[in-house]
Task: inverse folding
């Protein structure tokens, strides 16, 4: 089924917050609403654009890398859950089934992609992250075609539309910075702007149009607020996705010690979600705790251990180790005995 024309503006029915958003942001919000009808722009983006500052991209990556496992926790408990609040935006995730049935594998693949883009030189001209961005872009297009074929309602706009893509890219940079700051990490304004530049490059490579690309942290937060202001409240699909994400320690517990630790880890992630999302957004996604276990994490975030760029390599190794261990649990080798996993 062909995608609907975007030549005549008519906001998709998913934009239930449009009137309130127009009152908050002005009539320019209609431009974003119109882009919910647009999927991939169809142009060539296989390498770095002329506006890219490679040094800024590297500096932005270093900001996130030096926070290592804490940044990974923010991705799990704050950044990704923000996307689950969108009642229509979650439908492609539910359609593919990967974030409910295979939440762990999807999480670790996402972590690999994010860490790769943060490495020095990854987004330089000819860098490896451009190939990954092209792969993600192609995957999105395959999912779009599958959704159109399965009877996607054109009145909901395009599946995986431009604003959803832009908002998702922002999760992996500016919103991660916000989550880290909410836990007490000290990230300067210049550092946050470098992160925004890095994520602008990622968004460009994945097919986000220029109208939804931004280059500073303040612009990124404003754009995210504008996009998300158009959506309705979270639905049962968002709650199911959040539950699957939090339940990864339980679903991957192979050994007895892992099964004993899994409930505590799940509670830790729930508490971090409440501490970063806030009680109202967390409750909308089915999470209600007192946030007690987030307190020692806040203490760690306030120390000097996470503010030295020289530690970025060490944090990379720790994150790589956790991801590799996660993949081994997702796909245990045939040679592993049941006794060893018991």
Result:
């Amino acid at each position: 089924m062909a995608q609907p024309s975007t030549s005549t503006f008519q906001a998709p029915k998913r934009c239930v917050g449009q009137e309130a958003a127009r009152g908050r942001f002005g009539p320019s919000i209609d431009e974003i609403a119109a882009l919910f009808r647009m999927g991939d722009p169809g142009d060539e983006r296989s390498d770095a654009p002329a506006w890219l500052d490679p040094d800024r991209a590297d500096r932005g990556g270093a900001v996130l890398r030096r926070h290592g496992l804490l940044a990974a926790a923010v991705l799990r408990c704050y950044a990704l859950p923000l996307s689950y609040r969108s009642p229509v935006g979650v439908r492609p995730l539910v359609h593919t089934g990967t974030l409910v049935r295979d939440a762990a594998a999807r999480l670790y693949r996402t972590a690999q992609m994010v860490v790769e883009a943060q490495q020095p030189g990854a987004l330089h001209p000819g860098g490896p992250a451009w190939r990954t961005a092209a792969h993600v872009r192609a995957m999105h297009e395959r999912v779009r075609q599958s959704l159109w074929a399965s009877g996607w309602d054109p009145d909901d706009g395009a599946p995986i539309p431009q604003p959803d893509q832009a908002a998702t890219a922002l999760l992996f940079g500016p919103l991660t910075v916000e989550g880290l700051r909410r836990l007490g990490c000290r990230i300067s304004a210049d550092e946050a702007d470098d992160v925004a530049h890095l994520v602008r490059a990622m968004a460009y490579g994945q097919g986000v149009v220029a109208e939804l690309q931004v280059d500073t942290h303040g612009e990124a937060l404003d754009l995210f607020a504008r996009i998300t202001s158009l959506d309705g409240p979270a639905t049962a699909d968002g709650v199911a996705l959040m539950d699957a994400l939090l339940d990864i320690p339980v679903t991957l517990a192979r050994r007895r010690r892992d099964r004993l630790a899994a409930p505590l880890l799940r509670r830790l992630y729930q508490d971090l979600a409440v501490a970063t999302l806030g009680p109202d957004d967390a409750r909308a996604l089915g999470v209600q705790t007192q946030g007690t276990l987030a307190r020692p994490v806040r203490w760690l975030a306030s120390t000097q251990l996470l503010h030295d760029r020289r530690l970025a390599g060490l944090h990379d190794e720790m994150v790589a180790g956790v991801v590799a261990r996660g993949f081994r649990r997702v796909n245990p080798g045939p040679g592993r005995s049941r006794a060893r996993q018991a």
Q: What stands out?
A: The chain is about 65% helix and 0% strand. Confidence is low (pLDDT under 50) at residues 1-8, 335-342. Residues 22 and 127 are 40 Å apart (CA to CA).
